[in-house]
Amino acid sequence: MSFEIPESIKVYSQFVHPVIMWVLFALTCYALYLGMKVRRTRSAEGEEKKALIKGKYNTRHFQIGSLVLALMVVGCIAGMAVTYINNGKLFVGPHLLAGLGMTGLIAVSAALSPLMQKGVEWARYTHIFLNVTILGLFGWQALTGVEILQRIISKM
Q1: Closest CA to 143 of 85, 79, 98
Q2: Model-level pTM greater than 0.85?
Q3: Residue 117, exposed/middle/buried by CB under 10 A (0-12, 13-18, 19+)?
Q4: How far, in Å, CA of 106 to CA of 66, rounded?
Q5: Closest among 106, 86, 108 to 98, alpha carbons compared
Q6: 13/16 Cα distance (integer angstroms)
Q7: Which site from 17, 40, 108, 134 is most exposed, i.e. has the minimal number of CB atoms within 10 Å?
Q8: What Rg do the C-alpha atoms of the chain give, in angstroms?
Q9: What is the C-alpha separation between 125 and 119, in angstroms, rounded?
Q10: How far apart are CA 136 and CA 153, in angstroms?
Q11: Half-sphere CA count of 84, side-chain side, radius 13 A
Q12: Nearest to residue 35, comparing CAs of 134, 124, 136?
């Protein structure tokens, strides 16, 4: 007994990955903003530090970062799954390879959290470097993703 996915679901499922990724791109930018506030809080003194601490930027950064990690992994898998379902193969090219690389980098970045909580500076700098790299790749991914989406729409 085989299960066949209805054609309408196959067609419209192609838009799930791009929507998730654009939301994720916005969340990643917000996580960067929160991370900068965490660094500023760490270096502030006196009343400024007290005011920044009230913003709970460290907790919010950790929570948004966790959401970004989860959505990136799920979005990466969803993109590959939908591509395979609709085409019977994956298109191995820069978009796929950069996406897989970003997913690996974000896992490494998140894995540095326990060291950062212990105050290990090299872990913080590595975390920042990895996440800035991810954000740069993400911007490029957004552009190549729009090109892919335009090709899909033109074939509809």
Answers
A1: 98
A2: yes
A3: exposed
A4: 10
A5: 106
A6: 5
A7: 108
A8: 19
A9: 11
A10: 26
A11: 9
A12: 124
| CB neighbours of residue 79 within 10 Å | 22
Helix (H) or strand (E) holding 92: none
pLDDT digits (tens, 9 = 90+) for 77-134: 999 999 998 889 999 999 999 999 999 999 999 999 999 999 999 999 999 999 999 9
Token pair 């090219």 in the structure block, residue: 93
Residue with tokens 């490494």: 108
Q: How many CB atoms lie within 10 A of CB 77?
A: 12
Question: Which single residue is written with the structure tokens 């892919």?
Answer: 148
> Which structure tokens are listed for 81?
């799954």
Give the separation between CA 44 and CA 35, rounded to whole angstroms: 14
Please tell me the total number of residues recorded for the chain in this structure: 156
